[in-house]
Amino acid sequence: MKNLIYKYLVYVIYFLGIGMTSSGIVLMPFNMMRYSIILFIGLSLFIIGSVFNEVVINQNHMSPTESIKLVIFSLTLAIGIGMISGGISHFKESPKYVSYLIPLGIVISFISFAIKNNFNLEKKERFTVLIGVIIVAIIIFVGLSLASSNMGMMNDMTPGGDIFKGGH
């Protein structure tokens, strides 16, 4: 029963952390102070979930170097996923900004995930995968850029979506 509760708590912490990170990243240009706080809380939750998962659930005894690596790559993974998730959720609010966020988030999260989870690829495989991820990111960037220019909302930080209607 304890294992069930711990694993559930980690998933709640992970998803709350990613949700708050997503909101913080994509909406920060509209209210720097508010969304910086939300971003900080989201990243903190994701790190807490990562450490709890490794130390309590998986019972890994990590060296200081391994602990630092876990924190750094958990942060970059959360930021990358937050860029993708927040970008998808708020494309309408700032399409030009999001056209950069999503592809960059794909590259950041993929690299962070691979390093955090110790995927050891041969040099040729690493190069192939990295080039593939970059090509996918470029294709997505081009597609999103075209979509944003066709929306008639070319101003980088001009609020344009649903969250700005009705004085929220």
Question: Care to describe what's here?
Answer:
The protein is mainly alpha-helical. It has one domain. Helices cover 76% and strands 0% of the residues. It contains 5 helices and no strands. It has helices at residues 2-27, 32-57, 64-89, 95-116, 123-150. The chain starts with a helix and ends in an 18-residue tail after the last helix. The model has no long low-confidence stretch (mean pLDDT 88).
How would you concisely characterize the structure shown here?
The chain crosses the membrane at residues 9-30, 36-56, 68-91, 97-115, 127-147. The protein has 168 residues and is an all-alpha fold.
Low-confidence stretches: none
Residue share in helix? over 70%
Mean pLDDT: 88
Question: What composes the largest sheet?
Answer: none
Structural class: mainly alpha
Count structural domains: 1
Q: What proportion of the residues form beta strands (DSSP E)?
A: under 5%
The number of helical runs is 5
Number of strands: 0
- Overall 3D form: globular
User: What Rg is obtained from the alpha carbons, in whole angstroms?
Assistant: 18 Å
End-to-end distance: 42 Å
Helix/strand order, N-terminal first:
HHHHH
